[in-house]
Write a structure and sequence with these properties.
220 residues, single chain, 40% helix, globular, seven-stranded mixed sheet, 9 helices
C-alpha cells in the first residue's frame, strides 16, 4: 500500500468515526493513562506523539505536565481536524503543534525543529502503521540519545482464550481495529536487546519503554 493510499484509507475510516472516537475507544484502549503517568516529564521536555488521532493523549499530557512542549503527527487529515478543534477548545493551541505526515517519515524538521525530541509516544498506533518496524526506527532517529520511546498497544490476546479472543477481534473489526499479534511476539523475542516491556491483562495489551538504541535493536 502506498503512503497516499494509506492516508486515504485512514481518512475514509475516521471521516465519521472521529466524532465518536474518544467515547468508544475508552472502553478498550487500556494502558494509555498508565503510560502518561509514567512519563514523569520535566519542564521543557519535547514530546512527539506518533499517530496522535484526536489529541486525547496530548491534551492529557499538557494538563498533567504544563511545562512540556508537545507535538502530534497523524496520517489522517480527518483526525487532525478533530485534534485541532479539541486543542483549541482546551486553550492549548500555543503548546501543541500538529503535522500531517507518516510515522515512517518522522523527523523534527517536519515541525520546523532542528533539535531531536526528548520522548516519542505510540499509543495504539503501531498496530495501525503499515511498516511498524520502520516507524520505530524513525522514532529512534528522531529522539535524542538519553531520551525515551514509549508505546502502548494490543498484545496477541492469547491469554484470553480462543473463543473470547475471537469475539473481541470480531468486535474490534467493526471499528476497523486489527490487533497485530506479531508486534508483541517480536518484542518478546528481542527482550534481551533492552527496554522495559510490560504485558497487561492476559496479554490484551503491552507497554514498552526504551532508549533509542534499544528500540533500534527491537525493530530489527
Amino acid at each position: 500500500m502506498t503512503d497516499a493510499n494509506h492516508s486515504a484509507l485512514m481518512d475514509d475510516v475516521y471521516r465519521h468515526q472521529r466524532y465518536i472516537y474518544d467515547l468508544t475507544r475508552k472502553y478498550y484502549l487500556f494502558g494509555r493513562d498508565t503510560l502518561i503517568r509514567d512519563l514523569a516529564l520535566r519542564d521543557g521536555e519535547r514530546v512527539i506523539e506518533i499517530g496522535c488521532g484526536t489529541a486525547r493523549n496530548l491534551i492529557a499530557i499538557a494538563r498533567r505536565y504544563p511545562g512540556a512542549r508537545l507535538y502530534g503527527l497523524d496520517a489522517s487529515h480527518e483526525m487532525l481536524k478533530s485534534a485541532a478543534a479539541a486543542i483549541a477548545r482546551h486553550g492549548l493551541s500555543g503548546r501543541i503543534k500538529l503535522v500531517h505526515a507518516y510515522a515512517e517519515d518522522l523527523t523534527p524538521q517536519l515541525f520546523g525543529e532542528e533539535a531531536p525530541f526528548d520522548r516519542a509516544i505510540f499509543s495504539y498506533s503501531l498496530s495501525m502503521i503499515p511498516d511498524w518496524r520502520k516507524a520505530l526506527r524513525a522514532a529512534a532517529a528522531a529522539v535524542r540519545p538519553g531520551g525515551q520511546i514509549h508505546a502502548v498497544d494490543f498484545g496477541d490476546l492469547t491469554g484470553l482464550g480462543r473463543m473470547i479472543a475471537g469475539i473481541l477481534k470480531w468486535w474490534l473489526h467493526r471499528f476497523h481495529v486489527e490487533p497485530r499479534v506479531e508486534i508483541l511476539q517480536t518484542l518478546e523475542r528481542h527482550r534481551s536487546a533492552g527496554g522495559a516491556l510490560r504485558v497487561l491483562l492476559a496479554r490484551y495489551a503491552f507497554i514498552l519503554r526504551g532508549s533509542p538504541d534499544s528500540i533500534l535493536h527491537l525493530a530489527d
